[in-house]
UniProtKB/TrEMBL annotation:
Every DNA replication/recombination mediator RecO N-terminal domain range: 8-83
One cellular component (GO) term of this entry: bacterial nucleoid
Species per Swiss-Prot/TrEMBL record: Clostridium oryzae
GO biological process per UniProt: DNA recombination; double-strand break repair
Keywords: DNA damage, DNA recombination, DNA repair
Protein name as it appears in the record: DNA repair protein RecO
Its biological purpose: Involved in DNA repair and RecF pathway recombination.
Family assignment from sequence similarity: Belongs to the RecO family.
Top-level taxon of the source organism: Bacteria
SUPFAM superfamilies listed in its UniProt record: ArfGap/RecO-like zinc finger (SSF57863), Nucleic acid-binding proteins (SSF50249)
Keyword DNA repair: yes
């Protein structure tokens, strides 16, 4: 280790972890200031280590990091909310994992996105509070993740002729927008008019207020299908874990 490193303070939530070597962990943390970052936590695999609790998936903390040549290193932190209660309920665990996964696949590293950070945190707290239908929460979250990563849907105006849409049953996937009944329906997906209206609602209303949406199972299932399709169209990425291993080996050689 050479040179002086500056301590960087931020808030962050652990979205993914991986064991590394005998005692260490690699974490992917979504932070308010630095976006999604990869961090090495020395000794964090051992339960007696002071970093152990901070380095669990879902943990939301105030962190002190150091930036090495290629990656961050965690030094200390204070837990704000561990969210470890999700581990006691398989549904909660699945939903929380998905909230994290969506950040992982939609964000490249080291690109700050404070609005998305706030959104993700809101989703985690809303899930924990059990205050609304988790399916609706996840659909609202997906709609907003799309919006905050440059793939926001325009459902109020026709994406072809720009006329105001009152009701529609088609989304053009090239323009990320609705298509009115007069325009040509191609390069997109059909959906029920009620589902279109529900999606429009999710696209407009802040996430903490979407509990007002009254959707039956048919609409909920179609919303899930449509959003899944849009998300997998935009964020198709191959896993990067192996590349990261190479990266760390290289950076350790240089230290
Ligand atoms: Zn039109």
């Amino acid at each position: 280790m050479g040179g002086f490193l500056t301590a960087l303070k931020c808030k962050g939530i652990v979205i993914k972890t991986m064991d590394y070597k005998e005692n260490d962990k690699i974490l992917w943390i979504f932070t308010d200031k630095f976006g999604k970052i990869s961090v090495i936590a020395k000794g964090a695999k051992k339960s007696k280590n002071r970093l152990f609790n901070l380095c669990l998936t879902f943990c939301f903390s105030e962190l002190v990091l150091y930036k090495g040549k290629n990656m961050y290193r965690i030094n200390e932190g204070n837990i704000i909310e561990s969210f470890q209660g999700f581990l006691n309920d398989l549904d909660m665990l699945t939903y929380a994992s998905y909230i994290c996964e969506l950040i992982d696949i939609s964000m490249v590293e080291n690109e700050p996105n404070l609005e998305l950070f706030k959104l993700m945190l809101t989703a985690m707290y809303l899930l924990k509070s059990n205050a609304m239908d988790s399916d609706i929460l996840l659909r609202a979250y997906e709609t907003n993740v799309l919006k905050h990563t440059g793939y926001g849907l325009n459902l109020d105006f026709c994406s072809i002729c720009h006329k105001k849409i009152v009701s529609a049953d088609y989304i053009n996937l090239q323009y990320y927008g609705g298509v009115c009944d007069e325009c040509m329906k191609s390069q997109g997906i059909h959906l029920n008019r009620d589902t279109y209206s529900a999606l429009k609602f999710l696209n407009t209303v802040p996430m903490e207020k979407v509990y007002r949406l009254n959707a039956n199972d048919k609409i909920k299932n179609e919303l899930q299908r449509v959003l899944y399709l849009i998300i997998s169209n935009n964020y198709a990425k191959s896993p990067k874990s192996l590349q990261l291993f190479e990266f760390i080996k290289e950076s350790e050689k240089n230290e």
